[in-house]
């Protein structure tokens, strides 16, 4: 394999990305030993890179970004890495499994890094793989040719959609001795264009309903399938979605909402399923609108009944933002929203009588026979068909009830199943009757575990289930029996199991079944004990995560949607039994809720827990910080400040370190709201937190640097930000690194070093793009664009400002959008595009009047005057004098520019003194009127 010396590869480059699968879980399992394991992994990787000429571009935590001059060397290095890691003897619960992706494309080094689309594609290829796997893009395969390690070959996995790339990418896996050959499905939507797991059983019946739904979805934006539980809504929606998947550019996306009980989590669940994560400070519906814009696909929102308000808002948002997409909803009740078409689902057709000769033609009997393994070409015996007809009639043709009954037939026989159901007919309770009947046939231990699963709102693995159902306060179930008992429940269709992409089997319970489990648990008097056991599991998980976070310095903002739902269910359980540990659970998942913009959920839970008895002063203060953050993010500044004051009132009961932790967190929230208090908190907290965990240090230092810059101490602020940047780098916190870099760019801008500002802001922009952080991206683009304009690069500056404006308007950053409008208009003026500048200033002026931002309005008036002078010099001079009199010096418009404009106008206007005097005497109404008139005359 060829090797070349010198700098980073250029031209046709093969890029490699790798990272450890489940690194967070490894950290939890290994604790301090994780560092040793990580170092061993890095030694193996670097040995292979050195052998095959890999150039290490970046290393962050457990990930590598590497460039190769040629693809064969890259493939050989990857094979060496996987074999080397497999040969290691890892600690118990500490096996290192690395996923690797390769892509070849054209790229040139940019300093010690690359800025190229090929880099992003390589990263996306790696991200969809699994531990032990080597994936190649089509370009990498072509570049490698036949020059592979002698004992290796390639296996095509098919074509997949990679995030942010329109066309599907053929992906290929390297196979050979010493390499794992069996992996779960890739974490990407196949070119089949859906994320739906094809059910293991055949879809039977519902032909008329299926055709009706497909016809409606052809031209209706929102269709809701309505029926009681157990009617087969989800299965019908699955079948319809599979039919549509290949016909639409963006395929079909199935969003499971069965475990979601908070309207505020609907959007984040949809975004996660779409592969887009919510962003801190981002309005949920605005984020959803941005995510679906331009999509042409079907989005299924399944089991909407518990979160109907959230689903209604989401469906309307999708319909408005993506008019060529369709939303299919399943619910027990209609949503009653504009554009909704409701389809009521009836039970499956049943025979007219037990001895109906056409019984086999009914959907219900056909489904039962299918589940019993009766072939379509076979003709059941007359007596067997009669019993099947009677059973389906007894069950009112309800699909879930038929599934439950069919699961019992191998054990009891068809006749005994019918006899066990009794003779009563109760259409409304047929499903619950069938569930209770199936529950009644379980052994005592299986019944216990069934009842104790009433909290199972989202998929959970066996370890978690065992911890909860075998809690110390409740009647003992032998932990070694749990796996077998779960198999019994799964075989009886009382729970459902699924093997995840990580190879772990997880179990879930349908809402209809959970209702029965809940009723039975309450009836037997174990409800409080199970709630406490559930809270104990969650609190233990929080404690473990806290230790890991404090040791690593990383924020706990990476919980999955399913984990989040289980923690929220544990919080609700804790509220029922007044367990003080519940507050710690909420505080642990607060970063995740914050990153998803789930402010309503956060506010409601923290408000409820704040009144719980038995909380320590430290916990109460932390809850008040959480409540203030939720209030600020929701636009309720007054309420947010009340919660900050409530946290302050607890300071006498806290030690100095606990006070500093609160101050460090609150300071960043107060930067734009109360900078004086933010500065006070930050300066007091930092010396105390200097030896705290990295996460706390980064937050406090950022607030110190930002407030010093705000109050003119640019050098002191810059020093703090540089240290903040170094600590964030040490913690592997890329977002905090980008925040600090942007702040340093702003400092350079304030000092007039626009070239340095543009360079640093460009770096921050690149990171925010990679992190999918549109709020921060919008703000940073605005400042970077302004810097480019002042450097004379008008095209680049205007392009960045325009993108910034679009992002700020999309995410409802009203003041930020006004700054962008003003700077855009100023940019047009500097570029000689006077008419566009004047219209921009006039638009900004009108917007400021609506919002009430007086300083920016004065600056906009200044702009109108400057760009309208040739058309109406007296009016422009009067308007400019009025703006100057209204403290234009506070708006950021350069005073030399203002003075130069005044001198020019005075030369054009015969009675300049009178015009200026008139401007200074204008009332607010006259000021508004004159600005409009001057702009209109110029147009």
Task: Report what the structure shows.
- The chain has 939 residues and is an alpha/beta fold.
- It has 6 domains: 11-190, Alpha-Beta Plaits, CATH 3.30.70; 207-344, Rossmann fold (3-Layer(aba) Sandwich); 359-439, no CATH class; 442-525, Arc Repressor Mutant, subunit A (Orthogonal Bundle); 533-654, Serine Threonine Protein Phosphatase 5, Tetratricopeptide repeat, CATH 1.25.40; 813-939, Serine Threonine Protein Phosphatase 5, Tetratricopeptide repeat (Alpha Horseshoe).
- 58% of the residues lie in helices and 10% in strands.
- Strands 2-3-1-4-7-9-8-10 form an 8-stranded mixed beta sheet, with helices on both faces.
- Helix 8 packs parallel to helix 9 and helix 30 (734-750) runs parallel beside helix 32.
Quick take:
By secondary structure, the chain is an alpha/beta fold. The strands form 4 sheets. It has an 8-stranded mixed sheet, sandwiched between helices. It has a 5-stranded parallel sheet with strand order 12-13-14-11-15, with helices on both faces. Strands 16-18-17 form a 3-stranded antiparallel sheet.
């Amino acid at each position: 394999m060829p090797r070349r010396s010198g700098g980073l590869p250029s031209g046709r480059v093969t890029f490699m990305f790798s990272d450890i699968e489940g690194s967070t879980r490894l950290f939890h399992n290994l604790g301090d030993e994780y560092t040793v394991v990580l170092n061993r992994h890095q030694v193996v990787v670097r040995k292979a890179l050195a052998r095959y000429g890999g150039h290490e571009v970046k290393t962050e935590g457990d990930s590598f970004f590497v460039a190769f001059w040629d693809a064969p060397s890259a493939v050989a290095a990857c094979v060496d890495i996987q074999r080397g890691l497999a040969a290691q003897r890892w600690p118990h619960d500490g096996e290192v499994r690395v996923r690797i992706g390769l892509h070849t494309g054209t790229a040139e080094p940019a300093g010690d890094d690359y800025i190229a689309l090929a880099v992003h594609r390589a990263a996306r290829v790696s991200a969809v793989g699994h531990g032990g796997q080597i994936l190649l893009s089509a370009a990498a395969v072509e570049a490698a040719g036949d020059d592979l390690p002698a004992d290796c070959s390639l296996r095509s996995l098919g074509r997949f959609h990679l995030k942010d790339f329109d066309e599907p990418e053929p992906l290929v896996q390297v196979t050979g001795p010493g390499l794992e050959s069996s992996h779960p499905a890739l974490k990407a939507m196949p070119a089949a264009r859906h994320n739906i797991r094809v059910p293991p059983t055949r879809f039977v019946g519902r032909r008329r309903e299926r055709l009706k739904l497909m016809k409606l979805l052809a031209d209706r934006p929102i269709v809701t399938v309505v029926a009681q539980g157990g009617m087969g809504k989800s299965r019908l929606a699955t079948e319809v979605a599979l039919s549509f998947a290949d016909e639409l550019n963006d395929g079909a996306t199935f969003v499971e909402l069965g475990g979601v009980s908070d309207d505020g989590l609907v959007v984040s669940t949809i975004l996660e399923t779409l592969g887009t994560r919510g962003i801190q400070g981002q309005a949920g519906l605005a984020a959803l609108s941005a995510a679906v814009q331009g999509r042409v696909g079907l989005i299924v929102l399944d089991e909407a009944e518990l979160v109907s308000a959230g689903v209604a808002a989401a469906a309307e948002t999708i319909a408005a933002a993506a008019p060529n997409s369709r939303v299919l909803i399943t619910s027990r009740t209609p949503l009653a929203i504009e554009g909704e078409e409701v389809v009521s689902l009836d039970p499956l057709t049943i025979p007219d009588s037990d001895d109906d000769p056409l019984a086999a033609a009914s959907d219900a009997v056909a489904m039962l026979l299918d589940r019993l393994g009766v072939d379509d070409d076979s003709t059941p015996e007359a007596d067997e068909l009669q019993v099947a007809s009677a059973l389906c009639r007894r069950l009112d043709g309800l699909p879930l009830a038929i599934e439950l009954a069919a699961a019992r037939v191998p054990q009891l026989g068809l006749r005994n199943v019918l006899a066990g159901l009794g003779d009563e007919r109760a259409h409304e309770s047929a499903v619950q009757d069938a569930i209770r009947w199936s529950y009644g046939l379980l052994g005592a231990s299986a019944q216990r575990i069934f009842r104790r699963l009433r909290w199972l709102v989202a998929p959970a693995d066996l370890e978690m289930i065992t911890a909860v159902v075998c809690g110390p306060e409740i009647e003992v179930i032998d932990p070694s029996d749990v796996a077998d008992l779960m198999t019994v429940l799964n075989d009886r269709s009382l729970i459902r199991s699924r093997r995840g992409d990580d190879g772990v089997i997880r179990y879930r319970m349908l809402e209809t079944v959970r209702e029965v489990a809940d009723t039975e648990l309450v009836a037997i008097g174990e409800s409080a004990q199970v709630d406490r056991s559930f809270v104990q599991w969650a609190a233990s998980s929080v404690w473990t995560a806290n230790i890991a976070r404090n040791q690593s310095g990383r924020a706990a903002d990476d919980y999955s949607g399913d984990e989040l739902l289980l923690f929220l269910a544990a919080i609700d359980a804790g509220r029922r039994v007044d367990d003080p540990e519940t507050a710690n659970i909420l505080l642990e998942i607060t970063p995740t809720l914050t990153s998803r913009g789930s402010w309503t959920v956060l506010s409601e839970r923290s408000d409820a827990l704040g009144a719980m008895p038995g909380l320590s002063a430290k916990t109460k203060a932390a809850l008040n910080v959480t409540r203030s953050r939720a209030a600020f993010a929701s636009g309720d500044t007054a309420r947010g400040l009340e919660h900050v004051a409530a946290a302050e009132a607890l300071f006498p009961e806290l030690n100095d370190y606990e006070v500093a932790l609160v101050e460090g967190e609150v300071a960043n929230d107060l930067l734009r709201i109360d900078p004086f208090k933010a500065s006070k908190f930050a300066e007091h907290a930092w010396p105390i937190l200097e030896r705290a965990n990295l996460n706390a240090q980064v937050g406090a230092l950022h607030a110190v640097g930002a407030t010093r810059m705000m109050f003119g101490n640019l050098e002191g602020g810059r020093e703090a930000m540089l240290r903040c940047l170094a600590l964030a780098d040490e913690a592997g916190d890329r977002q905090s690194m980008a925040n600090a870099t942007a702040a340093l760019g702003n400092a350079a801008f304030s000092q007039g070093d626009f070239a340095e500002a543009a360079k640093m802001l460009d770096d921050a922009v690149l990171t925010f793009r990679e992190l999918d952080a549109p709020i921060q991206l919008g703000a940073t683009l605005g400042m970077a664009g302004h810097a480019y304009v002042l450097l004379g690069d008008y095209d680049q500056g205007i392009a960045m400002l325009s993108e910034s404006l679009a992002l700020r308007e999309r995410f409802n950053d009203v003041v930020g959008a006004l700054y962008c409008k003003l700077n855009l208009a100023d940019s047009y003026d500097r570029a000689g595009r006077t008419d566009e500048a004047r219209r921009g200033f006039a638009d900004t002026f009108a917007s400021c009047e609506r919002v009430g931002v007086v300083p920016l309005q004065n600056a906009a008036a200044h702009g109108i005057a400057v760009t309208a002078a040739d058309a109406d010099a007296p009016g422009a001079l009067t308007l400019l004098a009025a703006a100057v009199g209204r403290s234009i010096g506070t708006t950021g418009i350069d005073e030399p520019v203002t003075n130069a404009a005044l001198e020019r106008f005075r030369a054009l206007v015969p009675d300049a003194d009178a015009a200026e005097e008139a401007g200074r005497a204008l009332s607010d109404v006259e000021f508004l009127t004159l600005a409009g008139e001057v702009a209109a005359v110029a147009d």
